[in-house]
Amino acid sequence: MKVLIAGGGIAGLVLALKLRRLGIESEVFETTQHMRPLGVGINLLPHAVAVIESLGLREAVAARAIETSALHYYNAFGQPIWQEPRGLAAGYPVPQFSVHRGEFQMLLFEEVQRLCGESAVRLGHSFVSLEQSDDEVVATFARPDGSTVQARGDLLVGADGIHSAVRRFYYPDEAPPRFAQRMLWRGVTEAPPYLDGRTMFMAGHQDQKFVCYPISEPLRREGRSRINWIAELRVPGGTPPRSDWNKVVDKSVFAGRFADWRWDWIDVPAVIDGAPAIYEFPLVDRDTLPRWSFGRVTLMGDAAHPMYPVGSNGSAQAILDADYFAECMGLLQQGRFSSPAHALLEYEADRLPKTTGIVLRNRLNGPEQVMQIAHERAPGGFAHIDDVVPRAELEEIAARYKRVAGFDIERLRARAA
Ligand SMILES: Cc1cc2nc3c(=O)[nH]c(=O)nc-3n(C[C@H](O)[C@H](O)[C@H](O)COP(=O)(O)OP(=O)(O)OC[C@H]3O[C@@H](n4cnc5c(N)ncnc54)[C@H](O)[C@@H]3O)c2cc1C
C-alpha cells in the first residue's frame, strides 16, 4: 500500500506520520521548493493535540507553544462579555496550544524526514493532473524547471490547501473562494505579557475585531510574550485580492480604526506598532462540497473544507481528517472494507458532514457570536454583561460550538479513558 499526498502543509505532514505508524508508505509532494516557517499563529484545540500526542510530539510542541489557559471575549470598549478556561485549565486531558504555524509545520516536516527518510517529502512538486485505473492512481507533478514527474500509488490525497489543484481537477468550474467582505491583517509582536501571558482574547464584533494570543513558550520563560494578533474590518464591496498568506502591507491601511483601543491591561495600537511585518488576507471560505472521494482519490484539510478562521478550527479539523483517514486505512488493512475506494467513502462519510457543519456555523460567527449579540443589544457598551445577555445564553453558545466542532470535554475525557 502506498499513499501519494499532494501538499506538505499541516494535514499532509500529519497524515504521513499517522500512516507510518501503520506501516503504510506515503510520499508527500509539496509545491514549495524550500520549506520555511511561514505564517503566524494558529491554535491547536485539545482534540487535535490528542492526535499530536499519539504521534509522540506533544512535548516537542509544548517546548515551542503556549499552553493556552483561557479565552476571553470583550466588546469594542474592552468590557468583558465571556471568559472560559481552556485546555488543561478547563479539565481537558490534553492542553490547547497556541503556536507559530511555520514552527509547527517545520517540526512535522523534520519528523517526517527523520522517520520516513529525506526523500519522503518531494519539494518543488506541484500537482497538475491524475489518472486512475482499477489498480492504481498515477499523478503528474510539475517541477520548477517546467518538466513533469509521474508518481504511482494506491491512493492520492489532495491536501493542497485553499487553492487546491486536486479539488480543481474534480470541480474545474468552481467559483473562486467566497469573500466575506472582511479583511484580516495578521502580525506577531514581541512585548511584555498581557493578563497571565497564556490567554487568548477577542474584542469587538463582526465588523471590527481584534484577536490576540501569545505563541512562544521560550519567550514566556524569559518574562516576555510573542503575541500573535489579527485585526479584522468589514471593507467595501468589490473583488477580493487573491488570498495569499504572504502578502505584506502597511499598517496605515487599518490601524487608525483601532487607535483608541487602549485598556488598562492591553494597548492594542502598541501591539500593532510592534510588528515587524503585517500580512493581509481576505476572509474567505468555499461552499461546501457534496463529495470529496472519487475512486482512489480524496480531499483533506483546507482543500476539502476551507473555513473562516473562527473558533480556531482550521488546523484542528485538518489534523482530525488525517487521523480519521489513517483509522480507515487501519480498518482496510484488517479487511474491514472491500476496497481502498470503499475506505475513502467511509472517511468522507464521517468527516464531510462534520466539517460542513463547522464551515456553515463559522459563517454565523461560531462561538464569536457572543460578541455580535452583545454589540447588537448594547452598541454603546454596558455596565455589566448580565444586563445585556443572560449567562445561560452565553454558556449555551460556547457549549454548542464545542459539541459541533467535536471538542466537548465529556467526549475527550471518554476517549482518553
Ligand atoms: C504559507 C501559509 C501560511 C499560513 N499561515 C496561516 C496563519 O498564519 N494562520 C492560520 O490560521 N492559517 C494559516 N495558514 C493556513 C493553515 O495552515 C491551514 O488553514 C490549516 O492548517 C489546514 O492545513 P492544510 O494542510 O489543509 O493546508 P495548508 O497548511 O495551507 O497546506 C497546504 C499545502 O499544500 C501546498 N500546495 C498548494 N498547492 C499545491 C499543489 N498544486 N501541489 C502540491 N502542493 C501544493 C502548499 O504549499 C501548502 O504547503 C497558512 C497556510 C500557508 C500555506
Task: Give your account of this protein's structure.
It is a single chain. By secondary structure, the chain is of the alpha+beta class. It has a domain at 2-39 and 101-176 and 292-365: FAD/NAD(P)-binding domain. It has 12 helices and 21 strands. It has an 8-stranded mixed β-sheet with strand order 6-5-14-15-16-13-20-17. Strands 8-2-1-12-21 form a 5-stranded parallel β-sheet. A 3-stranded antiparallel β-sheet has the order 3-7-4. A hairpin with a 4-residue loop joins strand 9 (126-132) and strand 10 (137-142). Helix 1 (10-21) runs parallel beside helix 4. The longest helix is centred in the C-terminal third of the chain and has 24 residues, at 340-363. The two termini are 32 Å apart. The mean pLDDT is 95. Flavin-adenine dinucleotide (FAD) binds at residues 6-12, 29-32, 38-40, 42, 101, 126-127, 159-161, 165, 186, 245, 301-303, 309, 314-315, 318. Keywords: Monooxygenase, Oxidoreductase. GO terms for molecular function: FAD binding; monooxygenase activity. This is Flavin-dependent oxidoreductase. Residues 2-359 form the FAD-binding domain.
Question: How would you sum up this structure in a few lines?
Answer:
The protein has helices spanning 10-21, 46-54, 58-64, 101-116, 165-170, 217-221, 268-273, 314-333, 340-363, 369-377, 391-405, 409-416, and strands at residues 2-6, 25-30, 41-44, 66-67, 70-74, 80-85, 97-100, 121-123, 126-132, 137-142, 148-153, 155-158, 178-191, 199-205, 208-214, 225-234, 248-249, 262-263, 266-267, 278-285, 297-299.
